[in-house]
Write a structure and sequence with these properties.
This protein has about 270 residues and is of the alpha/beta class. Helix content is about 50%, strand content about 15%. It contains twelve helices and seven strands. The strands form two sheets. Strands 3-4-5-6-7 form a five-stranded mixed β-sheet, with helices on both faces. Helix 8 packs antiparallel against helix 9. The protein starts with a helix and ends with a helix.
């Protein structure tokens, strides 16, 4: 996700308002293989990022004002368990992208290495897969541990990647799981529709464009607030029409109840 965020932020590099601050970026990865993947993903944008593989993580963090943690959660203690690193992040805004890692768990990991003094300035965030193309919905955990200025900076930064939704921290895991489930299930549905259309003679590229284009248009109607999923479905359902018969066929296959079971299971296992 760190690479996706970088790509999204760099794609807006030339669209700053005149009063916006100038940002510089350093990306630290553990291996040369990871560095090569990062270079490949960034393409022409790599010249705007100081990319570092291995080496001294503390030296990379030292000049930063904001530190974004984007490694696998099971590496938490191995990466931030050093006294030098904890000293390096003291007083900085720490943005955690670690799914399932609470504010308290991250704070305890930092304080296990050294007495931190004042509570560290941490914000938990989960961008969505669209971050790289500035179409993310970023979840941010509400907190009383981080000052208003840091919250405003974070909101500004991630609004450059799309939309921002603040939530109570107690709901972050559930919302993260629900968002991931929605993405996965939507892609399964699109894939199935495309395959069916190809079987009926529609060229795959044409149907892929048609199916994909239906997603933002339907989403825009829901986000406008005038329609619910039920009323949107009803508005497209005419007597003996394709929509209502398609929905009834799905109901006969218990697809809706299967989706509900899957989504509940996914959120409970976060």
């Amino acid at each position: 996700m760190g690479t996706a965020i970088l790509k999204g932020l760099l794609s807006t590099k030339t669209r700053h308002d005149s009063g916006s601050p100038s940002l510089t970026y350093t990306a630290w990865v553990r291996t040369q293989n990871s560095l090569q993947r990062l270079h490949d993903a960034l393409g022409n944008h790599r010249k705007h990022v100081d990319c570092v593989a291995g080496g001294d993580l503390v030296a990379s963090i030292a000049p930063a004002h904001i530190v974004i943690l984007g490694f696998p959660p099971d590496q938490l203690q191995a990466i931030i368990g050093s006294e030098r690193l904890v000293e390096a992040v003291r007083g900085k805004l720490i943005i955690s992208l670690l799914a399932g890692v609470s504010y308290d768990r991250l704070t305890n990991a930092l304080q296990a290495a050294v007495t931190f003094g004042a509570k560290p300035q941490i914000l938990r965030e989960i961008p969505s897969i669209g971050a790289s193309i500035n179409a993310s919905v970023t979840l941010i955990a509400e907190t009383t541990h981080t000052g208003t200025e840091h919250q405003q900076v974070t909101t500004w930064l991630f609004q450059r990647l799309g939309q921002v939704q603040w939530l109570p921290e107690s709901l972050m895991n559930e919302a993260t799981a629900a968002g991931a489930a929605a993405d996965a299930l939507t892609m399964v549905a699109v894939d199935a529709i495309v395959d069916a259309s190809v079987a009926e003679g529609i060229p795959r590229p044409a149907e892929m464009r048609l199916a994909a284009a239906s997603l933002p248009s339907s989403a825009a109607l829901l986000l406008a607030g005038d329609l619910t999923p039920k009323s949107l479905k009803e508005s497209m359902s005419v007597p003996k029409g394709i929509t209502v018969n398609s929905v009834l066929e799905l109901e006969r296959g218990h697809v809706r109840s299967a989706i509900v079971r899957h989504a509940i299971s996914y959120t409970r296992n976060m």
